[in-house]
Amino acid sequence: MDSSKLLKTVYGIDIHFEDLVYQVKQSKQKEKKSVLKGISGTFKSGEMTAIMGPSGAGKSSLMNILTGLTKSGVSGTIEIGKARKLCAYIMQDDHFYPFFTVEETMLLAAALKISNKCVNLKEKRILIDHLLNTLKLNKAKQTRCSKLSGGQKKRLSIALELIDNPAVLFLDEPTTGLDSSSSFDTIQLLRTLANEGRTIVCTIHQPSTNIYNLFNLIYVLSSGQCTYQGTPQNTVMFLKTIGLECPAYHNPADFLLECVNGDFDDHTEALTECAKDTRWRYDQQLLQDEAEPPTDAQVAKFNESQTQGQAAQPKIQKVESAKELIKHTYPPPEWVRLWLLIGRCHLQFFRDWTLTYLKLGMHILSAVMIGLFFGDSGINATKQISNVGMIMIHCVYLWYTTIMPGILRYPMEIEIIKKETFNNWYKLRTYYVATLITSTPVHIIFSTVYITIGYLMTDQPVELDRFVKYLLTAVVVTICADGLGVFLGTILNPVNGTFVGAVSTCFMLMFSGFLILLNHIPNALRFIAALSPMRYALENMVISLYGNQRDKLVCPSTEFYCHFKNAITVLRQFGMEQGDFGYNIMMILGQITLFKILAYFTLKHKLKSV
Ligand SMILES: Nc1ncnc2c1ncn2[C@@H]1O[C@H](COP(=O)(O)OP(=O)(O)OP(=O)(O)O)[C@@H](O)[C@H]1O
């Protein structure tokens, strides 16, 4: 299959909805609010439809229902059926990974959406070049996404979704934030895509006359009711039938919106009644005062006569069966997507210097500073309380520097994940596993660097098994902090997340067994300490260093008596002589598993609600 064929075969999908009602719960009120009040309509393939209406009329709600993003509270019938897989939704804001170029973003999208078995890399490159040329993005091919202009971002969003040749494109306010020339270019491009046989549906605010006339169908909503469904050219005549005369040289789109807004009295009822007449959808020449709307054959004949002499339009194929549909979508297996996402996460990690070099530099600097402060605390029997304090600092440092980025990770990426999972680039669980696979080695490397420097600089026992146990505990507590951070990031916004993250760290620190000894905590409250991963981590790090019959520590000759000369005294002092390394590790691993599973489900829930 060559790439040009991939783009040329367009499956025509008509969207028909009947008696659509959407009700939402209102806080404090028992009665539900009807956002959409039994609207009906048909958006045909080969046509570009604009959904218009005043703010709060229900445009986005209708779009979300048609795309399948909103499911609860909806009644009525929608006929898109299995063809939902051939739909793409381009949301209002354009979100991309900032460190990738346009070409890289396109290549990755192509790899995620189309199996190499159907279209090989060379053909994908040809396809991408073709799309970038069509969307006038070829000059920005090597530009990083963060550096694109608003119009270029919108065109890139469209190009990304065109890769697998969707039959239906939904766009939420594609011209918002663009200047008039970019807006016109974007809508003209969409019209070209519609002419090729696709169904294009977009919401739009106050289009200029030029843009308005590019649409095939205008679908106007007002307070959840349809107040016009017809061609742009019929608007003036439609309004005239209910006595609303559009002034000369006035933009019909503006006048239509003024009328439905109630600027010339409330005509909603009359407009709703008149909008039920589907004949406004057709050219007046075709109707010729017929009482019935024309048949499809009549429309096709008329369109043919209108386009005579122009380039032949591609033939639109109808989707007949689910089998045929699967053939048309060419998705690669999910494990291939997993590899691709792991690759993307890695690249992103290395390109963002704040994630790599800055963090690594800070870890090294902090470890050296702590090493200089604590000196020989690992061996000097007079400094053992300070040494356990240093272990506490290691725990808190690793915890805090991991939980905060964890809290902020998903809020920053949520819009990208939402767009990509909704448009069938990959499944959420694939993405989630890819982030787990890529983030874990990073935590291991960073905590190893930090702990090794701190360990060696403070004269801790040079015994491999003690070091390995100490390091292992530091690594698992770091991964646990990441798990909790990600979980908090999926249930709270960044402001509340960082607050809760900081407060929870304080509590975990309080119950870690250093600031207040475990056997000093009232029995009834000890279960709180049992919830703190830092309590298990601290105990494990202390028993790694002082347990297992460690040799005596060095008591300086200047000292008359060293209370902590025997390592077991340190364990007794902190009530940790009964500590079980394996049990503590299992408790932290249990919490990691819990947080990671919870985070997946809360992320899934969040994607549905944003
Ligand atoms: N889940 C919801 N819960 C409560 N109210 C909702 C919900 N979804 C939509 N609404 C309400 O329904 C109305 C229509 O919202 P919608 O976002 O569809 O309007 P819109 O026409 O897209 O507006 P705009 O042009 O300003 O984006 C608004 O009053 C909104 O507050």
Please characterize this protein's 3D structure.
By secondary structure, this protein is α/β, with parallel strands linked by helices. The protein has 2 domains: 10-96 and 163-284, P-loop containing nucleotide triphosphate hydrolases (Rossmann fold, 3-Layer(aba) Sandwich); 334-609, no CATH class. It is 54% helix and 10% strand. The protein has helices spanning 3-8, 59-67, 102-113, 121-134, 150-162, 180-195, 209-214, 235-241, 252-261, 268-275, 284-287, 296-306, 322-329, 334-351, 357-374, 384-422, 428-457, 464-491, 494-510, 526-531, 533-546, 567-573, 581-609; strands spanning 11-12, 15-24, 33-43, 48-52, 74-79, 87-90, 168-172, 199-203, 217-222, 225-230, 317-318. Strands 6-7-8-4-9-10 form a 6-stranded mixed beta sheet, sandwiched between helices. A 3-stranded antiparallel beta sheet has the order 3-2-5, with helices on one face. It starts with a helix and ends with a helix. The protein binds adenosine-5'-triphosphate. Adenosine-5'-triphosphate binds at residues 24, 35, 53, 55-61. Its main location: membrane. Belongs to the ABC transporter superfamily. ABCG family. Eye pigment precursor importer (TC 3.A.1.204) subfamily. It is a multi-pass membrane protein. The chain crosses the membrane at residues 355-375, 387-410, 430-458, 470-492, 498-518, 581-603. It is found in: Membrane.
